[in-house]
Amino acid sequence: MTRWLGLGLAVALAFALAVLLGPAHIPLAQLASSDIVRSLRLPRAVLALLVGGALGLAGASLQALVRNPLADPFLLGLSGGASLGAVLAIALHVTGPWALPLAAFVGALAAMALVYRLGLVGGAELDPRVLILAGVAVGAFASAVTTAIVSLSEAAQLRNTFLWLWGGLSGASWDTVLVVCVYFPLPVAVLLAAARPLDLLALGEEPARHLGADVEPLRRRVYLAASLLTAAAVAVSGVIGFVGLIVPHAMRLLWGHRHRSLLPASFLAGGALLALADTTARVAVAPRELPVGIVTALVGVPLFAVMLRRWTAS
Amino acid sequence: MERRSPLRTHLAVVVAILAACRGSEHVRPPGRVAALTVTDDAGRTVALARPARRVVSLSPTVTELLFALGAGDRVVGRTTWCDYPPAARAVPSVGDGLNPNIEAVSARRPDLVVLYRSTLNETAARQLERLGVDAVVLRQDRLEDVARGARLLGRLTDRAAAGDSIARFLDSVLAAPRPAPHARLAFVAWDNPPMVIGAASYLDELARMAGGSNAFGDIGAPSATVSLETIATRDPDAIVVLADSARAPLPAYASRPEWRTIRAVRERRFVVLPGSLFGRPGPRAAEAVAELRRRLEALP
Questions:
Q1: Which residue of A has its CA nearest to B255?
Q2: I need a surface site. Which of A144, A274, B204, B224 has the fewest CB within 10 A?
Q3: Is B193's CB within 8 Å of A170's CB?
Q4: How high is the pLDDT of residue A122?
């Protein structure tokens, strides 16, 4: 119970800091009336919580699915697909406020479909090992095509596309928050509902079957939901590394391996970490801004190291 | 569709190897003092036996300079970005100016290659030297650089008088009394993540010559990623963007809600400038200063 309280406090603190701090100095009294807070900081803080949560949740689910501690939301080729989509959109002069996010989303979905199809080769079963290999292969192929386009194209914006792809939350607005709020609940609910069967799957495929888990449909469900979640995260904030890899492990140290606690804890902690990292990215080197993916690693690795030490010591 | 025969590809490789061998044996006759010796902006000493007749220009600024010097007929190669003067477009393109394609450059049989100063280009210059092609690396980030470059290129192309006169003209543009700054400008180079132009840039220099000031002049770098919040707080009088032409429509982000926290965006105070004239320093700097000054005075 105290652990949940602590996690809740961490989320609240991260959110409060994200709203209170920024390169602009805004007195407490004007906080509610400030346009900067209402139109910039608030949507950005909410988006950070949601995207970080999605990455934490997707990472925890995929680690359970492929039973590999190195799995993260981008292992299965999604970042490569998203980059390819975004770069193609720029190279083909597709314009519009949503062109880049939509193209990245479509690219990630295409990569997901391809990896999924490859994961099914050799039978109707989704083999986790084949899935990982297919993910790595599709990701490598997509980045090769991306690099070819970038080196052959004459569009000067392509360099900046990469800044966006490895970027972060600077495009946050209430529109993006709305899109995410409409889109996220379904895959999040699917993943949270898969907690019990994922516990069984952790025992091994055969034992899980004997205990009544429908292994095949479960795998497909979890894979598709986690990928859809990640694809949307890429579309609104680019590829933010590290959150989906380390947060689930950190939560496992605190909560153990039961997914009924692990999955919601990963969602909350992922959100808190990303909100904290984004605040740091905006404030640390003001007036300049750091890429948030770098900060998630800079903030996350020491935190994780401390936890690892305490855990191995006890 | 044209198919490239393997034989031709092999031949190209053999020719390149031969050229490389010749390059390594390329030693100037002892005792003979080269007619033209210059030190370029990378600190390399380059000695030309005679004024350059076939020049490959690997930067739009240099292409403009060479044509302004009256040496346009000696330009035998340019980058895809060299769009001024119009006559320059008739020169064959060798691709990019950063990390250039050495084979494409040497295929133009130049006796001088002029490169923009960057680490990759210094490597390229050394590669060209090994092929026996003289190369100079020039800094072209600010107007002072162009004035110095005009003198250097003038000497190398036997147009020393023209080079001096362009350099003196640019010096006078730089030394002209500057109007008191009456408009604070944010030069927005990219929208997501938002990138602005900092102090180490030609645009910053232009702004100060034209009666403006850079709202991000405290950032030392040529450009930097900043948050929208910072732009909103700095509250510039206008947002300056470069586009293909001055008549280009406002950037798409002008109507996005998060950008509308910036007063200048809300009030549609945009200054859209043609990239060919404003995106790089060059002999047309006086024109750019006058044009920007006019645009700033026309701001409501």
A1: A97
A2: A144
A3: yes
A4: 66
